[in-house]
Amino acid sequence: MKALMKNNGLEVVSIKPMVFDAYYISMISENYRRGKGGLGAMLSGFWTGFISNSHAASTGEYSSLIYVIRKK
Fold this sequence. Notes:
Elements: H1 2-7, E1 10-17, H2 19-34, H3 39-59, E2 65-71
Antiparallel strand pairs: 1-2
C-alpha cells in the first residue's frame, strides 16, 4: 500500500487497526455457518474475534486496517 501511494504522489500517514471488525465479521460468519442466529453463534463469533485480536496484538496483522493518506 505504501509503494502504491508513493507511486501516485501520496503518503501513508498512519495505519489504524479496526479492532471491532474481527468480532463483527466472526459473529456474522457464525450466523451464516449455523444457518440461524442465537446466543451460541454470538458467543462463538465473539471468541473467534477475541482470538484473532489477541494474535494480532503481538503480530500487528489485524483483519482490517484503515490507512490515513495525504497528498505529498
